[in-house]
Amino acid sequence: MAVLTLATLAGCGDVAHEMPTVTGAFGKNAKITLPKAGPPGHTVQTLIHGDGDLVRTGDVVDIQYSAVTWPGGQSLGSSFGQGNPIAINAAPTQAKGLQESLVGKRVGSRVMIVLPQTGQDETGAPTTTTAVFVIDIMDIAFKGISGAVTPPGPGLPSVTGRSGEEPIIAIPSAAPPKKLVVSPIVTGSGAVVKAGDQIVVQYVGNIWEGNRPFDSSWSNGSPASFVIGKGQIIPGWDKGLVGQRVGSRVLLVIPPADGYGKDGNPQAGIAGTDTLVFVVDILGIMPKS
Fold first, then answer.
1. Using one digit for the tens of pLDDT, what is the confidence trace for 153-174?
2. Most exposed: 19, 58, 126, 212, by fewest CB within 10 Å?
């Protein structure tokens, strides 16, 4: 599953302005021709209206894309002709303004998104450039999580946030539990996860001590995929996710013994005494080849 990564993006609002022209059939290479005038702010236009399923917040969509700078027209990359589509979240992420612009569109649509991008030059001074993305929505790979919410029990972290978006974890001031805690927040109705399945998930991970975030597939811009129950990831995930159903959101509180052990994970800033807190959305199971 490929990942589309982008710089931090800024800008909002639709503005009446001369826009680029785009040629090429849906699913084929999109040629972008820029006007002489400079770019507007954040602008979204649907160039081809598809009639497929409606994209909702939290869905994982398969796309093809092409992108250029405006002005200049320098390529920022293209997936057309490169093989499989790219899977991205249709929800606010670090690429704010891009992926959430796909929400409310239908499969089969071609969408043009003009996005100002903030950055820094070699001296550290702030800069603003603009990118033009043409995105073909090829399919909905996995539906986002939705359903009745069961709050975690007393003494456990609370989990909030709008359906389909990255959850927000609030950790209590109490000491963490000493044993693995598995608390389904939303119980799905899909297939049961079995050992050896390659699952597709969205997740966010915090360290209990200090409520410090250390990893998030949401912020990375794409779901993650793991083989579960076979010792390829930390024991807390293997123990906690096998037996859950697709469509579930699960809170995992993982003591060091079921996490990274006494050595921790220094690269991620995790000490050998840290308790880990994950919220995991189980989106699907990859077909076996």
1. 999 999 998 777 889 999 999 9
2. 126
Rounded distance between C-alpha atoms, residue 284 and residue 216, angstroms: 18
pTM of the model: 0.79
Catalytic residue among 48, 139, 168, 214: 214
Place of tokens 């209590």: 172
Burial class of residue 282 (count of CB atoms within 10 Å of its CB; 0-12, 13-18, 19+): buried
**Residue 189 per-residue DSSP state:** -
Mean pLDDT of the chain: 89
Question: Quick check: is 278 catalytic?
Answer: yes
Percentage above 90 pLDDT, the chain:
71
Which of the residues 135, 234, 254, 270 is marked catalytic? 234
Pick the catalytic residue: 215, 258, 274, 281?
215
Judging by beta carbons within 10 Å of its beta carbon (0-12, 13-18, 19+), is residue 38 exposed, middle or buried? exposed
3 state SS of 159: strand
Q: Clarify whether 260 is annotated catalytic.
A: yes
